[in-house]
Design a protein that fits this description.
The structure is a single chain. By secondary structure, the chain is an alpha+beta fold. The chain folds into 4 domains: 187 residues, Reverse transcriptase/Diguanylate cyclase domain (Alpha-Beta Plaits, 2-Layer Sandwich), CATH 3.30.70; 102 residues, Dna Ligase, domain 1 (2-Layer Sandwich), CATH 3.30.1490.100; 36 residues, no CATH class; 77 residues, no CATH class. Helices cover 32% and strands 27% of the residues. It is built from 16 helices and 20 strands. The protein has a 5-stranded antiparallel β-sheet with strand order 14-20-19-18-17, with no helix packed on it. A 4-stranded antiparallel β-sheet has the order 5-6-1-7, with helices on both faces. A 4-stranded antiparallel β-sheet has the order 8-11-9-10, covered by helices on one side. The longest helix is centred in the middle third of the chain and has 21 residues. It is elongated. This is DNA polymerase Y family protein.
Length: 504
């Protein structure tokens, strides 16, 4: 087993500031260049770098902190926002494993079964931290063979990323300071007085004396970290449906400013889909507008329809960007929400060596989806076969569809309509009348008939009767032409020979 721990030491501060990131609003962020602290019961608990540079530290009273920095911004702690931030981080983590555990100030992930799929624990760790940064959260990451061991390593001061995991859990944990143990906090001075400052030192003490002096809970926490006592975990459960809202910190009047906030919702969506082994074929982003005096604008729905199921965040973000680039806001936006409308089961991606027809179809589908998002569904069309033997009426333009059954039916229709005929890929808009030379049709040179005739008598029902004999002909330049001769001619038809198509 391999556990990854994500410790969020500044969670209250991140939860308060992440909604004020300047990427969401076009206005300058007043919190960018001022010292900020999070206070609880008038006591400083967390501070940003500028507050730390001013000499403010956790445990100071709010009054003394203001004395050190006149422009100090003191914000109250918001447990509801902290819980919401942790849930968003958990939804993102589900992208890598269904085994996610919520801690009061972080997450635990069991990723042993996911290493091969994502290319190793270093790539998983890098992607995890990158996603958390997009969510506005800063984490310390560590890994170990046990959940408790990974959690203790992640709390070590000064460590932001620990990618390596040690086979010998003792070597990985013995050098850690005692303050990483929750049940040792009340006894740190006493333990330091007897020369016990690290986990390895504590393990050398007689267990009976430690249990009698400091309590059995301290030993149990230590044993769980080293793997000598079993751990029980309550896995995070994703909601049954995905419908997530995000309140914006300011009025947004431009769609470009909304994309950063929308990506936060997409991060959670892709993790939720991965946990359910599913993908979406349709999502809707709702833009909730500010009410105006002239009219109460409630919301604008931005619907994204996918030709093929997907849970790729970059692909979904690209489609959303293309669609919102064409949108004019009817009123400022104060809140957005994302809903997964159409969900379908999808297994994990196959680690194939060579491209397969399914992967080629996915690449083509994504290209068309992007074109439809940018140009509109009606602008991207396909040629489909119509049941008519007249060439000019046998192919029609229709809105492009990606259903496999539709593509199969189209191929079958082509085979059924012309089972023994060879047709050119290029038809002239209007048949071109040909002259004859020595009783042979002429186009740049006398033509030689190679195959034919293919007789067509059709169209009596719509007053466009066609009675023709089609031939494949060749000129002296070896160009293959598709020509026909009218079976009934008149003086207005000239020779009765026409050029209708060219073979590539």
């Amino acid at each position: 087993m391999l556990w990854i721990a994500l410790h969020l030491p500044q969670l209250p501060l991140d939860a308060a500031l992440r909604c004020r990131l300047r990427h969401i609003s076009c206005e300058p962020d007043p919190y960018d260049h001022v010292p900020i602290v999070i206070c609880e019961r008038n006591v400083v608990g967390w501070c940003n770098q500028l507050a730390d540079d001013a000499g403010i530290c956790a445990g100071n009273s709010e009054a003394s902190a203001r004395a050190l920095a006149a422009d100090l911004q003191a914000l109250p702690r918001d447990p509801a926002q902290e819980s919401k931030a942790l849930e968003e981080a958990a939804l993102w983590s589900l992208h890598f494993t269904p085994h996610v555990v919520l801690r009061p100030d972080g997450l635990l992930l069991e990723v042993g079964a996911s290493l091969r799929l994502f290319g190793g624990h270093q790539r998983i760790a890098t992607q995890l931290l990158s996603g958390l940064l997009e969510l506005g959260l800063h984490a310390r990451l560590a890994s170990a063979a046990t959940a408790g061991g990974a959690w203790l390593r992640a709390q070590t001061a000064g460590i932001t990323q620990v990618f390596a995991h040690d086979g010998d859990i003792s070597a990985a944990l013995d050098s850690l300071p005692l303050h990483v143990l929750d049940h040792a906090q009340a006894h740190l001075d006493t333990l330091a007085g007897i020369g016990c400052r690290r986990l390895g030192d504590l393990r050398q003490l007689p267990r009976a004396g430690v249990a009698r002096r400091f309590g059995q809970a301290l030993l149990s926490e230590l044993d769980r970290a080293y793997g000598t006592e079993a751990e029980a975990h309550q896995w995070f459960e994703a909601p049954a449906i995905f419908d997530v809202k995000l309140e914006l910190p300011a009025r947004v009047e431009h769609t470009e400013a909304l994309l950063f906030a929308a990506r936060r919702l997409l991060l959670q969506l892709t993790g939720w889909l991965s946990a359910r082994h599913a993908a979406v074929t349709g999502i809707t982003l709702y833009l909730h507008h500010e009410s105006t005096r002239q009219r109460d604008h409630r919301s604008t729905a931005v619907n994204i329809q996918l030709g093929m199921p997907s849970r790729d965040i970059d692909h979904l973000a690209l489609l959303l960007r293309e669609r919102m680039g064409q949108l004019d806001l009817i009123a400022p936006v104060i809140e957005i929400s994302l809903k997964a409308d159409q969900i379908t089961a999808q297994a994990a991606p196959n680690t194939e060596l060579f491209p397969t027809p399914s992967s080629d179809a996915e690449n083509t589908g994504r290209l068309v989806e992007r074109l439809q998002s940018r140009l509109g569904n009606e602008a991207v069309r396909q040629l489909s076969v119509f049941a008519d033997h007249r060439p000019e009426k046998s192919v029609m333009s229709s809105v492009l569809s990606y259903q496999q059954a539709a593509r199969r039916n189209t191929r079958d229709a082509v085979a059924d309509t012309h089972p023994h005929c060879v047709r050119p890929t290029w038809l002239l808009p209007q048949p071109l009348a040909l002259h004859t030379h020595q009783h042979k049709p002429f186009y740049q040179s006398p033509l030689t008939l190679l195959t034919g005739p293919e007789r067509i008598e059709s169209g009596w029902w719509d007053d466009a009767l066609a009675t023709r004999d089609y031939f494949i002909a060749q000129n002296e330049q070896h160009v293959l032409l598709w020509i026909f001769r009218l079976r009934t001619t008149s003086s207005t038809h000239g020779s009765g020979w026409f050029l209708h198509g060219l073979f590539a």
